[in-house]
Amino acid sequence: MAEDLRGLAKTQNPVLGYFDPLKLGDQDFWDQGNDATVGFLRHAEMKHGRVAMAGFVGYCIHENGIRWPWALSTSLPDYSSFDGLSAPAVWDATPQAHPLPPSAQGARLQILLIIGFFEFWSESAYVLEQDGTKHYMRGGKPGYFPTFKEIPHPVPLNLFDPFGFTKKLSAEQKAKKLNIEVNNGRLAMLGLFSLISEAKVPGAVPALAGKIKPYDGEVMAPFSAADANLPYVGDMITFGKGLFAATGN
């Protein structure tokens, strides 16, 4: 409940405490009840924090010229096509898709499909029930990602804690580490958007001025006009342009 959220905030950051200027923690999203709303908010924050931590590290790695020592795919034998590009521009330069699996490694559609699968798997009530838990909006643990034991084909490692480092931890130790993760995720979200903001609008972040490669693409869109061959993408682009025009941007 909202009161539990306020108490949790003090353990996560005793200095800042509970900070919710939009009063989201007191809302009732989709008429599901406040408990479901709090579960949704906590899960969303953890998920975005984890993605941001990976994104921040990846952004720093690219900007510092660190590369894998092997070929990306059969059509991308090296990183020469990414030279001089900002980290967000690498996504735009990655091939959309290829007809054959061997050459599809790293293609954007393949990446989006696997992300979509992870979303489906983590939201499935059946999958969660097989792990002995519930959906995070139905009394389950926010941030929990189910195992892959229900997949017919054997999967050697799980996405969360693949090597079982947390199995022997007590409930108190797990709660403490989760609070640390949440705080790291919050910092990563601020850090990642600082990098993206400076790339999109040079000078927007004075501390990073002149240190980040500029980017003139769409940071909030997985597809651009170059992907208009995909179903509905052209319509989405047209709608987006009309929305920006209506708001005067």
TrEMBL record:
InterPro entries: Chloro_AB-bd_pln, Chloroa_b-bind
GO CC, any one term: chloroplast
Keyword Plastid attached: yes
SUPFAM superfamilies, sorted: Chlorophyll a-b binding protein
Keywords: Chlorophyll, Chloroplast, Chromophore, Photosynthesis, Plastid
Binding residues annotated for chlorophyll a, in chain numbering: 45, 48, 112, 181, 184, 186
Major place of residence: plastid
Subcellular localization(s) per the UniProt record: Plastid, Chloroplast
Binding-site residues for chlorophyll b, renumbered to this chain: 50, 122, 130
Keyword Plastid belongs to the record: yes
GO molecular function terms listed in the Swiss-Prot or TrEMBL record: chlorophyll binding
GO biological process: photosynthesis, light harvesting
Pfam families per the UniProt record, alphabetical: Chloroa_b-bind
Database matches in PANTHER family: CHLOROPHYLL A/B BINDING PROTEIN
Name of this protein: Light harvesting protein
Species per Swiss-Prot/TrEMBL record: Emiliania huxleyi (strain CCMP1516)
